[in-house]
Amino acid sequence: MEVIILPAARDVAMAAAGIIARLVAGKPGAVLGLATGASVKRVYAELVLTHQNQALDFSRVTTFNLDEYVGLSALHPASFHAFMEEHFLSRVNVDRRRVHLPPTQGDDLPGLCEKYESDIRAAGGIDLQLLGIGRDGHLGFNEPTSSLASRTRIKTLTGLTREANRSGFGEGEVPLHVVTMGIATILEARHCLLVADGAATADAVARMVEGPLTAMVPASALQVHPLATVIVDEAAAAGLSLRDYYREVQRNKPQWQR
């Protein structure tokens, strides 16, 4: 796991967007796994700027989103469909036929989840999976105790996660159920790129990077991924006991690794 510590949230977003932009420029038909949330919103903003200012072409990119609320209309402002439209899809030249979001409607959601998995395989697998982290260490909507061998499926949210997402629902109820890629699905991406910023994520980041590999902290599964990059700001890195070492590693990277 590579841990990169940068001064502020904007620096985190710029660094992550740079990694994604270099992938897309070098492999125009790349398959991207996409996430939602405040940290990744800043990454999308930087990618949009790169598209506008440097003509980064997304027309051949295929996307698969991590998760979505069960039964929530795609038009609901708190849906992840709406989030992706507002912050990324409507602002770049993506081909909508190549955009995939988890199934949340229908009589056979388990069957549709299996099809989502097969669609990822048919696309050649995910080249880069963008990720955030929950305050309890969840990855996607894989809550604590999620199987590390899990696949795309329906999950029940914890009260903590529902409360963290309440702002988008106003006086309405936060949905209890979601569809999410599983931990095993996420780990099959060729590159996992996780971003986090702010003091509220510091404990989860520390447990993910330096704690034991455990289903109680689903994000800790990234410890076994062959190419996992974690980019955090100073506030999010505050709980890392080896943060000085991670900075030293970055300063002294050999040229071929830069």
Describe the protein's architecture and organization:
This protein has one domain (2-253): Rossmann fold, CATH 3.40.50. It is of the alpha/beta class. The longest helix has 18 residues, at 9-26. It is 33% helix and 16% strand. It has a seven-stranded parallel sheet. The two termini are 15 Å apart. Helix 1 (9-26) crosses helix 2 (38-54). The radius of gyration is 17 Å and the shape is globular. The chain contains eight helices and ten strands.
**Total domain count:** 1
What is the highest CATH level, the class?
A: Alpha Beta
Structural class: alpha/beta
Rounded to the nearest angstrom, the distance between the terminal CA atoms is 15 Å
Q: What is the CATH topology classification name?
A: Rossmann fold
Query: Rounded to an integer, what's the Rg over CA atoms?
Result: 17 Å
Task: Please give the count of helices.
Answer: 8
The coarse silhouette is: globular
Could you list the spans in which at least 5 consecutive residues all have pLDDT below 50? Answer: none
User: What portion of residues is helical?
Assistant: 25-40%
